Amino acid sequence: RIYFILERNLRRNPIFHIGLFNKMADNTDASDPANLIGKAVKIINLASRQELNGHLGKVMGFKVDRERYTVQLSAISPAAAAAASRAGQSAPQAQTFDLKAHNLVAATLPDRVMEKFETTKTLFRTIYGDPAIREQVRRLYTSIKTRLPPGIKPEHVGIGALVLSIILVRFIGFSKFIMLFCLLSMVPLVCMPDIAAGTDAKTCLKKFPTRWREILVQATGYTRISEKAAIIGFGILLLLSLKILFTQAAPIPVSSVNTESLGPDNTWGTNDHTRQFWKEFETAEDMYKLGFADAEASKEYGASLPVDAASIKLALSSGGEEKISSAGEYESNDWQYQSPQSTKKQNKFGFTTIIAIVSLMRTLKELAFTPDNRPNFQLFLTNLKMLESWKLGLLGVCVYQIFNAFLF
Predict the structure, then answer these.
(1) Same domain for 231 and 279?
(2) pLDDT tens digit sequence for 371-393
(3) 294 lies in which domain range?
(4) Domains: count for the chain
(5) Taking the model in full, what pTM does it have?
């Protein structure tokens, strides 16, 4: 009821609208003295429960009477989760503690990364040592083996897939390989609940639009998505991905030695020794050093040159206007300037651009939309001012990537 009253007042009075959100942004009352509610924090200097120091959690609220924050640990013990799974029980709930403000500090990005790493490492150790999980893996291995032709083991299929992946990465690149893998696995993953239930392929395809819409709603938060719109979006995503996969990258120009500098009738001399000799001298400076070395050694003029050097004409690599023969004769250099080939503008729309668009849409949904999926510009400005610096930096990178792909 309070929500509808506020909404009605916001529509009638825009000034009340702006004042309300400004008041919300500047709210520093006693209900959150350290401004930690809703943020990820790290527990420090806790003497009563020292094993909790260094763990991350999320601040759920503040108890004014006790002057303590309610913190919910962000990770559940993998060992406890595995034990509950073996016993057929539901997963344990995350632990909650009431802590003072001086025992909490805002968690940084490295803290979150290390917490995820440690949790994942512990989870893998638990899974590897769990007999029930090992039994499930053995059953899966036996099931796959029975479906393969005689003489072929799952190991052979794995090695073949690995070799094929390396070949694809070599020919199409790593980013395109990841995109191809995602496209091929997208439909099976979306239909995984139906596949696990033993549904035939035709029924799975019929249920694909519904499953795809559910995933879009969960990923984006938009609930006003019809199945038709979801399928159209899937088609657009598929077309863009195929365009990226089949678009060849612009070739990198490779500089080559001008083999016509010796004249059309004299290509690197008349024998192998002379040809190899001229390949080592590409500029007039190289020839000057050769003559200078002969003079210091008191050798005769042209002693280091091949026997047939007098019949070979060289062009100055610096683009001079005359040709100099080994006999010291000057001739006009009737060369023609060849303008460099114009390179086509490379298409910058790729996998990173798609990721940037999806990330930007998700961020805008969180910042600018009310719980009933209505856009609100003032709410967007308020949330943008309260956004963490590293998230703001990632948002700027996404915007730059999109502008760079479409406008520059």
Answers:
(1) no
(2) 777 788 888 888 888 888 888 88
(3) 259-332
(4) 5
(5) 0.43
